[in-house]
From TrEMBL:
Subcellular location: Periplasm
InterPro entries, alphabetized: Bact_solute-bd_prot1, SBP
Organism encoding this protein: Rhizobium straminoryzae
GO CC field: periplasmic space
Pfam families xref list: SBP_bac_1
Keywords of this entry: Periplasm, Signal, Transport
Domain of life: Bacteria
Name of the protein: ABC transporter substrate-binding protein
């Protein structure tokens, strides 16, 4: 009798456990696989610990910005409610807001963030997403090799070529590439084109109007092609995406690399052949021009189709907090969105060059802001790729960019 009672009790207890939801709230966060979901996981673990009853899972996808955007476009066009929180490249909040895909944040004070991100996330006076991390393109270099040959970090692309020739002459290592950059037809190749273009003092779009300078565009495309033709970059550079550059530099096979901040953490990690041998500085300029870089960064949006609006917004506030920004700076080398963190002792210990990086982010140039950015991007990146693959001349490339952008930005 007693035994039956106990069994009965146990049974009903386990039935209860089965029927009651394990968590009051479950949220799904979409993170691009390039941006260290495993480190963001640790931030989410902290959130779960502080908010018992909330479970957050990660969905990853898209190792490049445009692959990720393509995926999200499909999900959002279908009004799919399975994703609550989305990480978005800095070029996308305007498009997502225009499509009605993100829910605005009411009463959020954006002045706490670096101004570029307050601006990128405010569309028609509404805050449409909150900053995840800041970003810019930098020149990574092998400190040990530059020191060995008595070379200062180059300030112009010509100086970089000269440095590579000197190092290659001495090292005599056929596997050592002079410069790795992004020539694949990915979003990053838009920045590849713009870096030397901007460096000549030219703009691409102003007040929504095309301000294309063909001569500067030809020079930009010629510069990148010359790296291939002169053997500074490898022949298949037209197949190289951002994370390929990160991997080959980290393996010790590259002297100079154009990359974003995330590449630092892994270059100093356990799988790296270049721990303690890496310097990071501003990107070189065209001779006679100014050093210029591309503004990057990612933002947290709440899906307009999420069924957990309040919980998702609460989580985004946490993901965008100084505490999370600091954690990601230290553990993932993602640049902070809060000015004061660039001087933070723990941050500077993990990434000493962050101490000088705020100025770079603050003077970085944004890619054109237009609801038709996808077409602008596609035009530029496919042309850069065709020139580097040798199927189009720099002159024809510049003509193609000009005529297509004229139609898009009419
Ligand atoms: C980085 C930047 C992002 C940029 C992308 C291009 O992730 O943060 O803004 O669009 O690289 O590859």
């Amino acid at each position: 009798m007693k035994k039956t009672m106990i069994t009965g009790l146990l049974l009903s207890a386990s039935m209860l456990a089965l029927s009651a939801p394990a968590f009051a709230e479950e949220l799904k966060v979409y993170i691009s696989s390039q941006h260290q979901p495993q480190v963001w996981r640790q931030v989410l673990d902290k959130y779960e610990a502080a908010n018992p009853g909330t479970k957050v899972t990660i969905e990853t996808g898209g190792n490049t910005s445009e692959a990720q955007a393509q995926y999200l476009n499909t999900i959002m066009s279908a009004k799919d409610s399975s994703l609550d929180v989305l990480i978005l490249d800095v070029i996308r909040p305007a498009q997502f807001a225009a499509a009605g895909w993100t829910s605005p944040f009411e009463g959020k004070d954006m002045s706490v963030y670096l101004p570029a991100y307050a601006e990128a996330n405010t569309v028609d006076g509404k805050v449409v997403a909150l900053p995840a991390f800041a970003d810019s393109m930098f020149l990574y270099y092998r400190k040990d090799l530059l020191e060995k040959y008595g070379i200062q970090p180059p300030k112009t692309w010509d100086e970089l070529k000269a440095a590579v020739k000197k190092i290659n002459g001495g090292e005599n290592n056929a596997d050592l590439q002079g410069l790795s950059f992004q020539g694949k037809a990915i979003e990053g190749a838009v920045c590849t084109f713009l870096l030397p273009y901007w460096s000549q003092g030219k703009s691409l779009v102003q007040n929504g109007k095309l301000t294309f300078d063909k001569d500067a565009a030809v020079k930009s495309l010629k510069l990148w092609k010359s790296f291939v033709d002169e053997g500074v970059s490898k022949k298949n550079i037209a197949e190289v995406a951002t994370d390929d550059t990160r991997k080959e530099f980290q393996a010790g096979n590259v002297v100079f690399a154009v990359n974003w901040s995330y590449a630092w953490a892994q270059s100093q990690g356990k799988d790296s052949a270049v721990v303690g041998k890496v310097g990071v500085t501003r990107l070189p300029a065209m001779t006679g021009g100014d050093q210029a870089t591309c503004l990057g960064g990612w933002e947290w949006g709440v899906s307009a189709y999420s069924k957990n609006q309040d919980a998702a917004k609460k989580l985004v506030q946490f993901l965008s907090s100084p505490e999370s920004s600091k954690f990601m700076a230290i553990n993932g080398s993602l640049l902070p969105t809060y000015a004061s963190l660039y001087q933070d002792a723990d941050v500077v210990k993990a990434a000493p060059w962050f101490a000088d990086a705020k100025q770079v982010v603050e003077t970085a140039k944004p890619r054109p802001v237009t609801p038709r950015y996808n077409e602008v991007s596609e035009t530029i990146r496919t042309t850069v790729n065709a020139v580097l693959a040798g199927v189009m001349t720099p002159e024809d490339g510049a003509t193609q960019i000009e005529s297509r952008l004229k139609r898009i930005l009419r």
